[in-house]
């Protein structure tokens, strides 16, 4: 979508397009989303889309036919009652049966259309959700850490299962009612040409008011994305087991609930104001429509009283005018709903159009260092700052990890340790400098190839609400069903004891989200995360980010005995606040405020008496106490 369209669709908060030209431009920009939506429908269910189009065409022409047959029935009854030549019960009954057939066809078309809409809704909703999820897979870490992008994702997901089909259905409704109106107008013109103009003119003000309210409804819902996430978060605090201890201990319930109520109250007042305005305009323009109908009704009834038209003509006029009024209102209502749907679709397409590919290799074809053995990892004057930030997270870091070397990484919170790991995994690229593996710049490698060479356990590891076997096997999805390999990884990671204690062992569903789920302690979850990293037997580099944060000293010792054996022929980076952990490293890098302050073995750093030595002694004194 063009930037001009975006401006029309998303006026700044607090601003409203006052001029008709602005509203029409916004409507045009919104309806520009229709072709893309129809392509989604075509991809979801071609046969269903064609069937729905055919049923719509049938439903469009039947009302005029039914109205005309109704006129013929009335005229035939009047003629038969007067004994007119050629009139009789047989003709009346035949016309009634004809109308019955048309009504049955209309009913069948309506039911089939309803069925097809439900089927198409499921297929289309699933396709749109798949596109949203596929896009999420293509997004980079920088996108997920950008609140604006995250809001786009939430807006896209908000009504993904309903809005696309609604836009298509309303488009068909516009076509159907326009055709119906054209057919009815052809009948109406014969009796009262000016009635057609009255019919349309009486409905236009209601359309303009509804279109404006639809745009305001969309803007309110769009603005709510950040606050909507806050509302969901407040609900999350009060309903998740991970929060209940602190909520009860600190008595947070009333505070969080009061904030929830205040935010919900704000949403309610906004919705109420829009609903009241919609009701007021609806009553006003409904009365206008009634006045137009009964004014025309009185004039045509007077013509029938003067015998200028037949009783059948009067019946036809009343039927056609009522149906015509309904058709005009349906068209305008459908256009209004289309506008609102199109505004939503603009959000969906804006999300799907977020530029990605920043992780793609610069070199084509991507360069690939030799596999099967660890290679040198070099950081050459690496500096990095997060998008939109002025402070440097890393500054001028140069470091070489020799093949097979074990590097400890220590530093205070915010020193840049986790940022460095993100750069090594190419979740971000350096702002300045370069990182090379085996002499190849990471930006010239295929990211999937790079990450396949790395096994990692993160401090914020994921607790998958899957089976125990899957929790470990996900470390190498290609071997998810290889139970012997999963068992070996569990032994290496020290998780075999956890598995043995589970009620269904490998088939036990873990976590508390689903029925019969078995919850684990933090330390047990972490052992599974470590075992998951050990699934990647071909890994050339191991990264352990606080791997012992939730386990006791004995378990920590056992883990690192296993880690020594596993990492014997691999390079490894260990991040930890426990200095007993990093002592096993060949060298230790000390980061401070994003800069490499010290580098050397444990003995060298202790002899130097710098920052590392001070922190080590401080921690050791804490243990002695």
From TrEMBL:
Alphabetical list of SMART domains matching this protein: AAA
| InterPro entries registered for this protein in UniProt | AAA+_ATPase, ABC1_TM_dom, ABC1_TM_sf, ABC_transporter-like_ATP-bd, ABC_transporter-like_CS, P-loop_NTPase, Type_1_exporter
> Pfam families, from UniProt?
ABC_tran
Keyword ATP-binding among UniProt keywords: yes
The ABC transporter domain covers which part of the protein?
377-618
Lineage top rank: taxon = Bacteria
Record key words, sorted:
ATP-binding, Membrane, Nucleotide-binding, Transmembrane, Transmembrane helix
Q: Topology versus the membrane, per the UniProt entry?
A: Multi-pass membrane protein
Where does this protein reside within or beyond the cell?
Cell membrane
Q: List where the protein spans the membrane.
A: 49-70, 90-113, 167-188, 194-215, 281-300
Task: Provide the primary localization.
Answer: membrane
Domain ABC transmembrane type-1 spans what residues?
50-340
This protein is called ABC transporter permease
Source organism per entry reads Anaeromyxobacter paludicola
């Amino acid at each position: 979508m063009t930037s001009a369209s975006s401006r029309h669709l998303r006026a700044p908060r607090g601003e409203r397009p006052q001029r008709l030209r602005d509203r029409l431009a916004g409507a045009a920009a919104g309806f520009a989303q229709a072709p893309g939506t129809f392509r989604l429908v075509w991809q979801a269910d071609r046969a269903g889309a064609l069937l729905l189009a055919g049923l719509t065409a049938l439903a469009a022409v039947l009302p005029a036919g039914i109205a005309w047959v109704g006129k013929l029935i009335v005229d035939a009854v009047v003629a038969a009652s007067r004994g007119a030549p050629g009139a009789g019960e047989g003709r009346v009954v035949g016309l009634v049966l004809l109308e019955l057939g048309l009504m049955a066809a209309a009913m069948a078309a309506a039911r089939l259309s309803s069925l097809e809409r439900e089927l198409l809704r499921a297929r289309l909703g699933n396709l749109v959700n798949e596109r949203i999820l596929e896009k999420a897979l293509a997004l980079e870490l920088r996108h997920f850490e950008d609140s604006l992008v995250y809001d786009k994702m939430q807006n896209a997901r908000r009504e993904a299962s309903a809005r696309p089909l609604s836009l298509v259905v309303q488009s068909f409704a516009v076509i159907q009612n326009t055709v119906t109106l054209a057919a009815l107008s052809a009948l109406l013109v014969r009796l009262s040409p000016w009635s057609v103009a009255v019919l349309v003119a009486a409905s236009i003000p209601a359309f303009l008011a509804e279109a404006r309210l639809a745009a305001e409804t969309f803007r309110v819902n769009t603005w709510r994305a950040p606050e909507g996430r806050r509302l969901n978060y407040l609900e999350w605090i009060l309903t998740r087991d991970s929060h209940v201890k602190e909520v009860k201990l600190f008595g947070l319930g009333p505070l969080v609930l009061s904030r929830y109520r205040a935010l919900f109250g704000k949403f309610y007042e906004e919705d109420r104001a829009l609903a009241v305005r919609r009701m007021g305009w609806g009553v006003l323009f409904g009365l206008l429509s009634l006045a137009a109908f009964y004014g025309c009704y009185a004039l045509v009834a007077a013509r029938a009283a003067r015998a200028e038209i037949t009783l059948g003509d009067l019946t036809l006029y009343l039927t056609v005018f009522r149906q015509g009024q309904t058709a005009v209102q349906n068209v305008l209502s459908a256009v209004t709903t289309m506008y609102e749907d199109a505004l939503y679709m603009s959000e969906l397409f804006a999300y799907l159009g977020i530029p990605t590919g920043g992780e793609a290799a610069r070199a084509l074809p991507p360069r690939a260092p030799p596999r099967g053995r660890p290679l040198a990892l070099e950081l050459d004057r690496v500096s990095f700052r997060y998008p939109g930030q002025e402070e440097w997270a890393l500054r001028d870091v140069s470091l070489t990890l020799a093949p097979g070397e074990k590097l400890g990484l220590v530093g205070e919170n915010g020193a840049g340790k986790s940022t460095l790991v993100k750069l090594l995994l190419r979740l971000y690229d350096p702002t300045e400098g370069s990182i090379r593996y085996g002499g190849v710049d990471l930006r010239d490698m295929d990211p999937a190839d790079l990450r396949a060479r790395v096994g990692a356990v993160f401090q914020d590891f994921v607790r998958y609400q899957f089976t125990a076997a899957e929790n470990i096997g996900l470390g190498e999805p290609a071997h998810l069903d290889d139970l012997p390999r999963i068992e070996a990884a569990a032994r290496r990671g020290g998780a075999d004891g956890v598995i043995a204690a589970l009620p269904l062992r490998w088939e036990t569903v873990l976590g508390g989200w689903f029925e019969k789920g078995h919850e684990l302690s933090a330390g047990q979850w972490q052992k599974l995360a470590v075992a998951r990293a050990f699934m990647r037997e071909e890994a050339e580099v191991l990264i352990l980010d606080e791997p012992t944060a939730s386990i006791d000293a004995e378990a920590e010792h056992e883990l690192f005995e296993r880690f020594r054996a596993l990492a014997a022929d691999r390079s490894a980076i260990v991040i930890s606040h426990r200095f007993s952990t990093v002592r096993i490293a060949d060298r230790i890098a000390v980061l401070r405020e994003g800069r490499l302050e010290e580098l050397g073995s444990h003995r060298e750093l202790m002899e130097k008496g710098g920052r590392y030595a001070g922190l080590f002694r401080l921690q050791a004194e804490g243990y002695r106490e």
